[in-house]
Amino acid sequence: MDGSGLAGATVTLAGTASASAVTDANGTYSFAQLANGSYTLTAAKTGYIVTPSSISVTVDNADLPEQNFTALSASMTIAAGYFHSLALKGDGTVWVWGYNWSGQLGDGTTTDRSTPVQVSGLSG
Fold first, then answer.
1. What pTM value is reported for the model?
2. Domain count of the chain?
């Protein structure tokens, strides 16, 4: 997992082989001795929305590079624009993702975001 290090999320591996792991207190997980082949990783935890919904990876005689998921609490309000979306979490933080060519995400950049990023500088 990525971000705040969500403990207790289940990461499932399917494909050439299958396995599952639970993230530790730091939000990390691992799979050992994977056979060469194609795999799909998914992550889930009750009460959270995880993005991306899955990650496709190929193992070919090499270590699998780190694969990150972002998890947001499901207790939030979400608003969707035509090309971007915003989420107000229960803790008052605002998260955004989508196209950002004019800086409409409010994260201080014009970088498009496929996963949610927190907007800084907001107060309730």
1. 0.57
2. 2
